[in-house]
Amino acid sequence: MTRSTGSVPDGRNSTRPVSPSALTVPACAVQIAWSNKKLTSLEDFKGQKIRATSPEQIEFLKRFGANGLTVGAPEVPSALERGVVDGVLTANAGGGKIWKDLLKYCYEIGLNFFEANIVANKEAYAKLPANYRDILTKAVVELSPKMTKMMEAEEGEEKAKRKAEGMIQTKAMPEDYKRGANRMASYWDEWAKTKGGETPEALKKVRETLGR
Question: Is residue 183 part of a domain?
């Protein structure tokens, strides 16, 4: 779980800076690659314009010769139609469902997961009676794995639908993941330095666990 500070609704029809407290973090579906141009391998990224949603995704695309672009979700359909972008990074149950008619290829190389943080106003949460706070926390924590399973099931269902509709789906091989990890290795060192704090040590432990 994570904690951050930002502007979120405070429950009184206004938005003000507060410190949200994360109650749980259900896992979302993995982000994979889609395009209206041939995309069945890492080599096919070269020269393509792909809509991405994080600096890390953009860097991955750059290292394989693609141009990662930031496009707001409402503008994606028109961007695909006008050729502003050739494809997107998204999940089957996300953009793969919404923008399916504008895409032809799905290269199933999982780049990352996005967190879906369920948060509460820290101040308001602390003011709740202890028994109410315990009930709320218990309910949210129990809901989290159910949400993960629901999203996982939907991802499989939507993938099957895309296949039946004629989407050209290509599963990434272990060698593809290895090449991707090797190509991004140097980036993560710089990434950890810019984040500072405990990040470099955390990255070291992750690499030791994964044997990378």
Answer: no
Domain that holds residue 64: 25-172
Contact between 94 and 29 under an 8 Å Cβ cutoff? The reply is yes
Q: Taking the alpha carbons of 88, 89, 94, 96 in that order, is the dihedral positive or negative? A: positive
The residue written with tokens 């993941």 in the block is: 177
Task: Classify residue 183 by burial, with Cβ atoms within 10 Å: 0-12, 13-18, 19+.
Answer: middle
Could you tell me the CA-to-CA distances from 205 to 112, 171, 188, 199 in Å, in that order? 19, 29, 13, 10
Amino acid sitting at position 148: T
Under 8 Å between Cβ of 34 and 134: no
Count CB neighbours of 69 within 10 A.
Answer: 16
What burial class does residue 34 get, using C-beta atoms within 10 Å of its C-beta: 0-12 exposed, 13-18 middle, 19+ buried?
A: buried
Distance CA 125, CA 105 (A): 45
At 144, which helix (H) or strand (E)? Answer: helix 130-165
How many domains does one find in the chain? Answer: 1
pLDDT by 10s per residue, the chain, length 212:
333 333 333 333 333 344 567 677 777 889 999 999 999 999 999 999 999 999 999 999 999 999 999 999 999 999 999 999 999 999 999 999 999 999 999 999 999 988 778 888 888 999 999 999 999 989 988 988 898 899 999 999 999 999 999 999 999 999 999 999 999 999 999 999 999 999 999 999 999 998 87
